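Hey, I was hoping to borrow your eyes for a little while. No rush at all, and the record is pasted right below:
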Amino acid sequence: MAGWALLPLRAFLGGTFVFAGLQKLANPGFFDASNPTSIRSQLASAARVSPIHGLIAHLQHVAVPLGVAISLGELAIGAATLVGLWSRAAAVGGMLLSFSLFLTVSFHASPYYTGSDIVFVFAWTPLLVAGTGGVLSLDALSRDIARARAGAAPATTVPVSFEVVQKVCGAYDAGRCRAMRGAPCEPAPCPYLERGSATKPALPPGDIDRRTFTLQGVFAGALAGVALVGAALAAGVGRLAGNSSRSTGPVNGPSTLPPAAQSTTTATSATATTSGATPTTSKPVARPAGTKIGAASVVPVGGAATFQDPKSGDPAAVVQPEAGTFVAFDTVCPHQGCVVEYSTQVQRFVCPCHGSQFNGRTGAVLNGPAPTGLGRISVKKGPDGQLYVT
């Protein structure tokens, strides 16, 4: 009965993990470092707030292989859970993956139960304890086939009420058990049930387990082949869809402003000298007050470039929504401190952790859960073509 009771949970967890794995593989942006929802962007955001930020900072260098491993891991765990193959091992894998996501993404969710990852961790525990219960399971099928080939009866557990046992037992007499010298008939010390368990045929030591493991390996190989074909199809469809969408407008992440040169208080024009003319020099032109962060030419029209806010030290971005207009924002999400990224396709800042979106021109929050918009940073373009922030 436990197996039937856990079947809806198996279907939900298995289906969710399969969908999550295929969705990542089908999304080219997940592996594109310039995309605001990429695995690299998510790691960069998590590195600021995660309790294991030291480890995550090093993982950013292998973001793409890690993303592939996570995608295939989710696919494998989900598929194994759906078909009931090595179910307890799949539950362990699901718990570890969910717990790692809790540490990197939703650790600071408040209240804690608003983060889904910790819920997934505990949702896997019933399957770890009870397995599939032999219901619609390749584990149970492998065991039954192995026992049949060894000449043993199936090991299926059949629930029988104790009332039926009393009717079958020849020693039962008016509520008393003659085999127990007239003691009250009860399930726990029932000699009938003990005798039934003792009459099971002896099996060759380890033979059934070896046969079962071999069959499970065969099923696992077949399941892996099907999963890899599905993964390849999902990735191929995603790439084709991505190429089609890029023809109408690319999704480009922000460039990075190069370190600014040593700032000066004035800027002078070049000296012009012509034949027979006296060299002249224009008057010094004062630059805007503030700290130079880089050349304005680095920021594309309709795009953005990142820099570090000289005042707070936070990551920031400057956007040029139209030619000659520059606006800058602190890119730390007000929700849980992840670093948002700018998407040129929708001209918005997107949080890779929890999905908040912000207006690319004003920084105002468009989609929660962020409670407020991004912090505004004053930026001006100087006559020397450099950008200055105060």
